[in-house]
Amino acid sequence: EVLMYLGGCYEESGNMPLSNQAFHRAYQADKQNPSACQVSALAFLREGKTDAARARLKEAEQLGQPADPGIALGVAQALHQENRSQESAELLQAVSKVAPNAHKDKGFRKLAKSVEQATGAPGSLAPPRSLFASPAFWWAAAAVAVASGLVCRDLYLTSHQAMFVVNGLPTPITVQIDDREPLTLDGGSRRQLAISGGEHKVRVVSPDALADEAGFAIESSRSSRWFRQPVHVLSPTRSSVVFWEETVFSDKQQANVDPGFELAVGRLITSYDNADYLFREFPQSLEVKDTTKQVLKSRVDTADFGPMGLVVGDPQQLRNPFVLDYLEPHLLFGGGREALLRLYTNASLQQDAMDRAYRFLEAHLEEKPVDLDWHKTFQSVAALQGEADLTARYERLLEASPRDPSLLYLRGRLESFGQPAAQFYRRALAVEPSHARTLAAIAFSEACHGDFESALRSVQKAIEIEPEMPSAADLREELLIALGRYEDLEEECRQKLQAAPMSFGASVTLMTSQAARGRVELARQTQESFAETLTREWPDDPHELGKRVEEKLLRFSGDYQAAERVASSMTDPRLRNSSLLLCALLNGDPARAEEIVQQLPAHQQGESLLWCSLVRATAQDPEADAARERAAALLETDGGPHREVARLFRKPPGSLDLAKQAADLELEADTKVAVLLLLAENAGDQGPEMMRLARRLNRMPSDFQPLLTSALSAYDQAHPSDATE
What we know:
The protein is an alpha+beta fold. Helix 11 runs antiparallel to helix 12 (337-350).
């Protein structure tokens, strides 16, 4: 096969001697291969060796493969030119049997008429054209032309290429290709059709949300069409993952084998030069004549693991420029939307495509019923994009549906302070007391105000109503640690790990709980068990889970320099920079941390500089005030609670409402503690009240907890009368 392919490449480049040589070598390599017999016949024909060419065609026939119409026609032409018209007529008859409609080709008819005249049998080879006027008689086997002895069957192969139309969505789609009849594909199905080379158009007719028209090209080399099995895969909605892979069949493992693999995500059209198996698995074994040789086979198929499986297996796909095309139709018609939206936002951030994400999400805001995950993601993206009238947008939505509990909840999420947010949450629960997302939002608000018991009751009620709510599950685990209910949480984690030993989340939560109650050695055992399982079950570890767990354990142990060394070895720049930033802060090196901040995405820099300013303030660094102002300047551009933090930083010292406003901020517990610490120094007699809340909130587990504990201790030493809790 390689030699035949090589011969075709030489032919395309115009090097006929080398092409002929490669074709003859292909025959010598495997005389039982009928295709090798055919190409050797072609080479003999081009060399003017008519009898040798005819003999090769007979060998192919004896091996069960009829003479190739194009090559046979070329041999017939040569025989006729050598005044061997009767032999030419016999070969033309053979061509007619293989390709019954060959008479429609001008080259065939011209040669046939000349042979008829020479043999005295007019009409025997080329019946009148009127018999073949019907479209049903279009040449179904090959269209051949003869030019200077070179035979080309390319016309037929070009116009009859195999294309599969695939649908990677769970919902049916209807598409139209060029002017053909519309084609409906069920969810996850495919259809095969023949298509010609060149430019084409495909239009998605339904569903309406995916309606679109796009152009695509069918391209393949002549050598591929002649001697291989090219295949094209069209995904009109770009919702499929198409892959091509090779495998080696051999009686023993070959050390020099490197099978190929290609993955195409979100592509409209993908083309492959060769595929032995189409949309089916490789066979378990092959029978070969020579067991000392290895046989390389290939296949094309679509993956069935879905978007989550794609990214779990290869996190680098989030940087694939086609992955947004792939995720968007799945967001509209796939399942597991909350997780997919996180993937989509992450990919958009990594590809600097937040404008696109904003437009895509905005286009579907008016759909009913209200999709909470969709709107929450849009609110986050809009805030990152700096939309000034986000609150006004949701006020307008509420005006149209004033008693919609989902819209009331979404409107409440936009408030930066707890009291105004609670008004919307109460209105939502008045309409629907079991609105799970509102209950979870109330739980978050109660948690960031230090009421952990109430927060736990609220979040558990929300989870009972909507069990698949990851953010609520995470909050519940944090609350159990804050309340000191370690045994309950750790038993849950052990049960999860028994069912799924590679659960990263359960392992980290178990380690966090063990470390929180001072059992670092138990946390080490948990880390070692996870690392052992990971090495055994997933040695590639594309998400660097092993390093992440090891780095976390080292921080629990207080060995921040060792943790920094592990962080430095991470290959994912996002993971590496966030871990290095944390280690620099815990090591008390704000200058190094500020250098790392410059490498972070813009939306992370404001809060990161907030932590840098806290480290400087704790160390009584003269640059602390300037660092806080730099953080405030960036936080102000973030919008939401971060903007309010910047405003609080700029209030005059001792402002009467400073403690009240700071306490009412809807912020993550650790960030809120940092804000309270930075404000307390200039809060006058409001400082003790702020510190009481800060100490309570610091019970919530956080990567920054050691830093916050150190800052609280420093404050207490400077203000011993305030340490009253």
